[in-house]
Amino acid sequence: MTQKKVRNRRTWMALVLGLSLIGTGSLAAPVFAANASEKKQEETVTSMDEEGNMQTVESGPKLIENPAGPDKTRKGEPQVVNFRTKNNAVTEFIEQETAKPGYTNGAYGADAVYLGYANGKYKFMLSGVVGWVKEDEVQVVNLSQAKAVSCYEVKDGKLLHHIVQDMTTPGYATSLNNGTAPSYLEPGVTYYSYDGHYFYKDYGVMVTDYRKDQRSQSVNPQEPYYNYFQYLPMRSQSSYTGMEVNKMLDGTLKEGSKMKDTGELFVSNQNTYGVNALLMTGIAANESNWGKSSISQKKNNLFGLNATDKAPGANANQYESVAACIEDFANGWMSKGYLYPKDYRYNGGFLGNKASGLNVKYASDPYWGEKAANIVWRLDHAMGEKDAGKYTLAVKEIVPKEHVSVNVRKEPSASSTLLYKTGKAANYVVLVRNQEAKDGFYEIQSDGVLDEKREGVVKSSGNYSFEQMYGYMSADYLTLISSSKQEDGETQEPVAPEENQKPEEITLFVTPEAVEVLQGKTQQFTATVKNETGTLPGLAWTVVGNQSQNTTVDNNGMLTVGKDETADKIIVRAALAANPEKGADAVAVIAKEQEPDKVPEEPPKEEETPEVPEQEGETVTPEEPEKPEEEGETSQEPETPEGGGEIPEESEKPEGETETPKEPEMQDSEMTDPEVPKQEEPQKETEQNLAGQEVHQEMNAEPSKSQDKQKQEKQQEKKESVKTGDETPVFLFGLAGSVAILFLLYRTVRRKKYN
After folding, report:
1. Measured between alpha carbons, how far is 280 from 291 in angstroms, rounded to an integer?
2. What is the pTM of this model?
């Protein structure tokens, strides 16, 4: 080959290379633009009337013009927190006492009562939970600026709960029928309540009580109200046969409903897996819009199982039949999931609200549990109310203060084998099998499946025996709220909690209520006491939850955080020296020196501990005395009994299951992920899918991964994955190609001139 031909071949090769580089650069931009312009669809938001009928409602933000802003002096008119500030998306918050993360969706419940301000966060109460939310996530307005706020009224002898989904418009999108109203509530009177248990005629009086952590000024200080079906444990049995359930549904279901003739399926799974048939029916109706939602129709999925927020229609589980779906829900999602006490989603085995029950993790709709209960009451009422008031119920901690975790034992003894712990959720309800306490213990129905020897909970099987699976809880921590029907059909009035017998005469406040403190630094806390004399009694300051002996608080409220402090948060408590039971707490979030940008008050990420293998025949015999966990106790130092016993307060994700029942009511769509609080990029705890009011977490994530490892894997994945229109400068490809071509043309012209 001649030298000239070689030069010509090299020239053409270089030319082709240059054009390829230009082409590569020109192709990257359009693909990136296409992805950027792709619109995320939002799911349908619904309302519900007192008959259980659902309608689609607008889901966009509803902001009040010229909001007043927070009254930090607490001397002005009552104020309201507006959560309806974004398009159908969740708003995250931190629970006051436990520092655990929570979430809600303002499109389903717009208003919460405003309780205070600290460190860029508003304190509020909504659906029973007291929490802190970032000020840029919500609005705070005067009560007079809100066109409507949620309230209760008695109509035709029934207690109706009117729920506001838009504070800018008068009226109520949702009205729920809770059944027979208690005798202390009068017709024609508007009542306010954000926990659903204590009612107030005056909004301002309610706020005053809430700020004092008391309910003494309510109309029912000694008779807290509990919606029976909302707090009835799933570990109960309906009195109805499958044919009777079908008869209930026949009068409600529309043509083509996937819930038709499902009564026998619900009852059969109840008897096998121990999940109440009528409660399952209520959840299915609420989730699937009575069997007419798109996912139920296309995939036989009545519960929106695994319909994640990113792609609900695509990700939702496909079932070969409705029967297979109901069995998976009863066995996998309930018996081995939400009702398993070691599961990270466990907050009690009942529908509940945002303070306790399934609603805490199952749904972003703060009134999801009450809506399902509304449906159940309607069905039961149509058939003669055979289920209402059937069981005796008892509650742990009505007014959320201490958030104690109570032991459930094998036998009525403080030295008996520990079966599991209740967790720290307040308003935790259990089914009492015998109204008479034995040796200071109530016999209760176990939420978890027990092994053959009744010595511990298991998750290897979801099969449940109502006769054999029970435990004992100390009567000191339980208050009876409902008694089973007597032979004459009458029911016993709820027993008032001891703390409400006498109103508190002294009110104690600690400021700041929540603050971030660096390791090795100090923080001054101040106590304010309100009493009739106006004098300041003697106080005793203590710190709870610290891991370092160098973390102390002096008699004047000066907190010193040790440089070696490893706890993520601690409690600073001021109590009356003469009466230590009367006190107030403040939360101090510990910031590490190497993490100066950490956001104050963010909760410590709950470690996901791999499950200790459960073995048949193992016994759990802890030696600790019968007392609840102290406030501030963390999961970093769990007490692990020998023999594979329970690790208290740890979350275990079910194996082999995919999380997230969520159902886009009428459309298969996608929702924008909520903003994650700044906390070393933690994994999202929840998957939001809001059409059927559910938000669930991915259960297929490996529980043994630490947060740091998860972060490293995410960074590595980011490096290894091919990004469309990523950091690579497109113009460099074009520039390189152009230079190559110009250089070759110059050489060609020069050679021709030389020749």
Report:
1. 13
2. 0.66
